[in-house]
Amino acid sequence: MLIAVLIAVLLLIPVTANGEEHVKKTVTRIVSSSDSLYRRFIRTVYSRNLNKFDFRNDGDGTYYVLRPNEPLEFEKYKYYWNESHRDLKEYNNICEYQVHHFIDAEELKNTYFPDGTRLKSMFFHCSFPYSCVAMECLIESRFYLAIIFVGFVFFGLYFVRRCVMKEIKQLEKIRDQCVRPQSVPGPRYMSPMFLQNEVEEPPPPSYNMVIDTAPPSYESVVRDRVTYTLPSYSAVA
Questions:
Q1: Which long-range contacts (CB under 8 A, 24 or more apart) does 11-19 make?
Q2: 3-class DSSP state for residue 142?
Q3: Is the pTM above the cut of 0.70?
Q4: 227 sits in which H/E element
């Protein structure tokens, strides 16, 4: 388990060399001009009402002159015009959005520095566990990998524990069967104390006794063949 946690941490820590952390720059580009954040950015930032740029017009169209020392704030992001800006020095991981002159909007392609240099890149920062995707920050893929890896480790440990407990129960069952004395077939053993305390039942009456005490038949009584012997009573003083 400890090894799994260490591997998960290694998947998440930034790249280091010679014991010092180096600034990691991730280059991104727009995937599609129909992206919702991208369209909101162009429609909002380049609005004349916000006064984010200095506007210049000539025969070829409108040009936008940026202000190098002022970051461009849009929604929850801050976009910088160069990577050496003082606000970016505290970060070890920055994102560089490169302007593509075939995909990006006309506003970005017509954005210039005050010295007349065309804008090529914008820079912003994404905090963990987010990574740079186009002009925004999304959940980093290695964060999901770390969670999936730890989940597999937990599942493996649970499966191994179940198998081990099942084997232990089977071994205990076999051990109990070997230690327990087996019953020997034969007459049931009875304690002498039980035999002494047992009350003997009288035997059943004999056949002749049953016949002698039986009443006379009806036919014998009718034919007056039955004699009665009256019991003798003695006077009681």
A1: 11/142, 11/145, 11/146, 11/149, 12/128, 12/129, 12/142, 12/143, 12/146, 14/92, 14/93
A2: helix
A3: no
A4: none
Does any domain span residue 198? Answer: no
Q: Is 128 a domain residue?
A: yes
- State the DSSP code for 182: P
**31 plus 47 within the same structural domain:** yes
φ/ψ bin of 180: left (φ > 0), alpha (ψ from -120 to 50), beta (otherwise): beta
Give how far the C-alpha of residue 65 lies from the chain's centroid of Cα atoms, to the nearest Å: 52
Which tokens hold the place of 193?
A: 């104390």
- Say yes or no: 30 and 99 in one domain: yes
Asked if the structure places residue 193 within a domain, the reply is no
Query: How many domains, in total, are found in the chain?
Result: 2
Q: Return the C-alpha torsion angle 98, 14, 78, 81, nearest 10.
A: -40
pLDDT digits (tens, 9 = 90+) for 56-96: 887 778 889 998 888 999 988 999 999 888 888 888 889 99
Cβ neighbors of 110 (< 8 A, separation 6 or more) are 61, 62, 63, 64
